[in-house]
Amino acid sequence: MTSTLPNSPPFPSIMQEVSQQVYPLSTLYVVATPIGNTGDITLRALNVLSIADAVACEDTRNTAQLLHRYGLSKELIAAHEHNEREAAAKLVSRLQSGQRIALVSDAGTPAVSDPGARIVDAVRAAGLRVMPLPGASAAVSALSAGGLLHDRFYFVGFLPVKARQREQVLEDLLAVPATLVFYEAPHRIAETTAALAKVFGPHRQIVFARELTKLFEEIHRCPLQEAEAWIAADSNREKGEYVLLVEGATAAASADDAEADRILSILIAELPVKQAAALAAQISGKKKNALYERALQLKQET
Ligand code: SAM
Hints:
five-stranded mixed beta sheet, 43% helix, binds S-adenosylmethionine, single chain, 302 residues, 12 helices, 3 domains, Methyltransferase, Cobalt-precorrin-4 Transmethylase, Domain 2, alpha/beta, 10 strands
């Protein structure tokens, strides 16, 4: 029996095609890099990184290591949150001299909860071209695999660290009729989860999108009332990177409705539905019949 070698993969020819596309001079290329898995980089990003005169980056050590994985070595220019303005001026002058500069952050898409926006603003203000090279984004990856049904999403990013400010921001989001997207550091995941449950009540769904594209990737969805227990069930869950998605208010819901839901949820946990609705009507000033219907719904969901 003769065996034939499989056809060689089509990558070399597509890479050649990509390298022959137009990459204008005097342009800032905003390049998305992986959020964990080194394989998640586009062919166009690789090409731009290889032809760029320099790469502006958040952390030169990280970016040097990343480039090394792709067999690249480039001049690196530090452009982080503490020097973004000065870095922008330097980059503008290099672009004006005809160079191509790539801008990357430590992970994912620059200027999304990462430095980059000031540089882009300065380059555009100087009348120079900025080209996005789309790719990995933790927020979009979580939305794509989280399984919440949404037509809209609202990107919040990182919440304030101080409890009172954090709660205020969350309260302002109560009536937003869109999936809410949060970034959070691992050492704050437990307290942020508790704050989400406190403000949004027990019934909204939350999605924990943890360590996306990495070895210990985990995507878990549950009602907010189960969220704290899920974190506590495994000490590893206080480690790793997280995107949190929280189901939005239904289109008709208002901050008032959310508050009424909160009151009803507390009361139906202790009282018969009819009595809970009557008390909630007194507290909120809303119609008893509507609250009764809503209480029955909430009861069913628990
Ligand atoms: N610019 C990046 C992007 O495009 O998504 C985000 C950078 S922001 C400084 C870092 C935050 O993004 C982390 O604290 C975490 O909330 C989220 N994140 C980044 N990588 C992630 C991953 N692999 N899995 C889950 N969340 C991640």
